[in-house]
């Protein structure tokens, strides 16, 4: 990363009185509107971290028609469907999106529900764009004769200091605003990119087929000076699935945009959304709630006498710093999985047997246990090969979870692909309730009756979220609960 002293100051930018507004009535207005219209927002989440701003809603990991119907059968205005497409190649991602849309159209037609689809992806601009938006547009037209006017690009994620200002997407790093293109995330071996300027990012990602000048812009000036009416006017001008870039540095900005979106939908416009997590909270009219207490993130009953389990697959620098801080502060059992061995067919079984035996021994002995992959990143020349490596490594962590014979006191999974695979393949979750967050940007699922361990809090920790001490902070919260029982 280049010298951050040349970047805008985070605090000064966010406190600029020109753009520092709030209006608590907007969220209530959104909620009332959705209650009246019964419009549903169905979020296709490309990894399980997208629920990191919401609570008291449900996520399904199976997009069969029966599960979609179950998920849409209550009064809630939003349903998440975990697709995990960020861990798959383009062909599989495309097939998953098509199948889901076909099933959504059938179910909503039967239930008489009007809906919009949100393609929830990464706040650091990684993922299958424009592929997923293009596929959703195509399939909605084929299956339901829905013509998409435009797709809103909203990567802002305030809980983890990600903001879009003057069409450039920034991360807050050490008190400075750093363009996301100058962070480690832009160097992703599968989804890397060169610019944080969103119109130019669109042009880059579409390989020039969509010119940067063709993007519609909703600026902070539009939001703060023109308000709902100005944003509504911009939205009405969208046609032919035009990209619409939303600048945002606070929930006030998103709430103004959300009210305008609902107004435009009422006028007959149809939109898709490529967003990070903060927008969903706004458009669904979900209010704030306090972070979850220690008691809410620990299993009930006899399992409180067992050790807790933390499984880490993410290789970001942030994650490595976080687990190092945890290991430095607390006497937790540490098991490193040798990635070279699990990628080798001849040594994979032996390495996994070693790890599984240790994990069961430690957890049954009330010893909190950390399992993490060796920190050296193995990178292949081809994107497909890198995806395969990620899947094999994540698959090894899933095998460890599957092997658990005893229910841990708590479960934390660190990393997008890791937490998704652990949820669906390791814990066999089909339907879970989102309880809330344990710290900013870190959601907690409550597993359903079908899961390997039912009614169990499952802490989903994104690879690109948190400060150096964040995992240790959650661990300390859990320990404080134990102290209260003594």
UniProtKB/TrEMBL annotation:
Entry protein name: Uncharacterized protein YgbK (DUF1537 family)
Pfam families per UniProt: NBD_C, SBD_N
SUPFAM superfamilies membership: YgbK-like
Lineage of the species this protein comes from: Bacteria, Bacillati, Bacillota, Bacilli, Bacillales
Family assignment from sequence similarity: Belongs to the four-carbon acid sugar kinase family.
Domain Four-carbon acid sugar kinase nucleotide binding: 310-470
Species assigned in the record: Neobacillus ginsengisoli
Positions of the Four-carbon acid sugar kinase N-terminal domain: 42-282
InterPro entries per the UniProt record, alphabetical: 4-carb_acid_sugar_kinase_N, 4-carb_acid_sugar_kinase_N_sf, NBD_C, NBD_C_sf
Keywords from the UniProt entry: ATP-binding, Carbohydrate metabolism, Kinase, Nucleotide-binding, Transferase
């Amino acid at each position: 990363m280049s010298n951050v002293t040349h970047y805008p100051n985070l605090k000064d930018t966010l406190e600029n009185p020109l753009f520092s507004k709030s209006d608590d009535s907007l969220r209530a207005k959104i909620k009332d509107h959705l209650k009246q219209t019964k419009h549903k927002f169905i979020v296709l989440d490309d990894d399980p971290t997208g629920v990191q701003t919401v609570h008291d809603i449900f996520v399904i990991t199976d997009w069969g028609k029966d599960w979609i119907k179950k998920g849409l059968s209550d009064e809630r205005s939003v349903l998440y469907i975990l697709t995990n497409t960020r861990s798959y190649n383009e062909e599989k991602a495309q097939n998953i999106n098509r199948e889901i849309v076909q099933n959504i159209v059938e179910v909503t037609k039967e239930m008489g529900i009007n809906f919009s689809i949100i393609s929830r992806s990464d706040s650091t601009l990684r993922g299958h764009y424009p592929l997923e938006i293009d596929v959703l547009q195509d399939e909605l037209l084929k299956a339901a004769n829905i013509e998409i006017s435009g797709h809103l690009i909203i990567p802002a994620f305030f809980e983890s200091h990600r903001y879009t200002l003057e069409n450039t997407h920034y991360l807050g790093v050490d008190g400075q605003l750093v363009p996301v293109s100058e962070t480690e995330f832009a160097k992703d071996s599968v989804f890397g990119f060169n610019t944080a300027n969103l119109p130019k990012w669109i042009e880059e990602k579409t390989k020039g087929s969509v010119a940067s000048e063709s993007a519609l812009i909703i600026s902070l000036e539009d939001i703060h000076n023109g308000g709902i009416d100005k944003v509504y006017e911009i939205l009405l001008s969208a046609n032919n699935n035009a990209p619409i870039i939303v600048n945002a540095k606070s929930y006030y900005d998103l709430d103004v945009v959300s009210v305008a979106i609902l107004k435009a939908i009422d006028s007959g416009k149809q939109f898709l959304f490529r967003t990070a997590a903060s927008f969903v909270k706004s458009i669904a009219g979900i209010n704030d709630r306090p972070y979850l207490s220690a008691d809410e993130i620990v299993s009930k009953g006899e399992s409180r006498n067992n050790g807790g389990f933390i499984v880490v697959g993410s290789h970001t620098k942030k994650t490595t710093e976080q687990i190092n801080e945890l290991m430095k502060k607390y006497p937790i059992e540490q098991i490193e999985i040798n990635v070279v061995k699990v990628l080798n067919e001849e040594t994979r079984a032996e390495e996994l047997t070693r790890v599984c035996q240790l994990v069961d021994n430690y957890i049954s002995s009330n010893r909190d246990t950390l399992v993490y992959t060796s920190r050296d990143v193995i990178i292949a020349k081809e994107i497909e090969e890198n995806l395969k490596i990620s899947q094999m490594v994540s698959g090894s962590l899933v095998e460890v979870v599957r092997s658990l014979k005893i229910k841990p006191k708590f479960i934390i999974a660190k990393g997008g692909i890791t937490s998704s695979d652990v949820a669906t393949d390791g814990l066999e979750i089909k339907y879970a309730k989102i309880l809330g967050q344990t710290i900013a940007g870190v959601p907690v699922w409550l597993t359903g009756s079908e899961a390997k361990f039912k009614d169990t809090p499952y802490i989903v920790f994104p690879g690109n979220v948190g400060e150096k001490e964040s995992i240790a902070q959650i661990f300390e919260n859990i320990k404080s609960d134990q102290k209260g029982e003594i």
